[in-house]
Write a structure and sequence with these properties.
With 184 residues, the chain is mostly beta strands. It has two helices and twelve strands, in the order βββββααβββββββ. It folds into two domains: 103 residues, no CATH class; 63 residues, no CATH class. A hairpin with a 2-residue loop joins strand 3 and strand 4. Belongs to the glycosyl hydrolase 16 family.
Length: 184
């Protein structure tokens, strides 16, 4: 994609508080503060949830409900309490908003090549990633049908090398196996 525009027919936004299997702290939104195109470049940019709902609500007494609302913001992933969460009693609303875009309903291929040119962000708690996931779970639930992590990195500038390094380290992974506990 040349990203002259953000083509909604190709790219769909995730909308979830779930954090995936890594229990990430971001809330994926369909908000132009978090994803936009300018001068042929796609920007995925984090913002603070407290700026939207207030610091006190992030920590106590607020319910974030992604079940309703406009169609573009409906929850896309309920795993790990992704569609509704209430702050309080040690549970917080995800403090960072960001964007995850995907082609789950628009692009798939059996053979080919993927080229990506990306500038990765720096900052604590940031984990940029580019993944390829199956359209259909032909062989069962994750990881049985596979996953290709083209790139994952840490945004931490000073992350110790003995724990995988920081911004100067990337990784790629193939996930497969009959079940989560046998992921290879």
């Amino acid at each position: 994609d040349d990203f002259n525009t953000l083509r909604n027919s190709v790219w769909q936004h995730a909308s979830t508080l779930g954090g995936g299997g890594n229990f990430e702290f971001e809330w994926y939104t369909n908000n132009r503060s978090n994803s936009f195109v300018r001068d042929g470049t796609l920007y995925l940019q984090p913002t603070l949830t407290a700026d939207a709902i207030g610091e006190a609500n992030v920590e106590n007494g607020y319910t974030m409900d992604l079940w309703g609302g406009d169609p573009a913001s409906l929850c896309t992933g309920n795993a790990f309490f992704g569609c509704e969460r209430t702050s309080g009693n040690g549970q917080i609303i995800n403090p960072i908003q960001s964007a995850q875009i995907r082609t789950v309903n628009s692009v798939n291929f059996k053979y080919g090549r993927v080229e990506v040119r990306a500038k990765l962000p720096q900052g604590d708690w940031i984990w940029p990633a580019i993944w390829m996931l199956p359209v259909n779970g032909e062989y069962g639930k994750w990881p049985a049908s596979g996953e290709i992590d083209i790139m994952e990195s840490r945004g931490n500038l000073n992350y110790p090398a003995e724990f995988g390094g920081g911004v100067n380290t990337i990784g790629s992974t193939l996930h497969w196996g009959p079940s989560f506990d046998f992921n290879r």
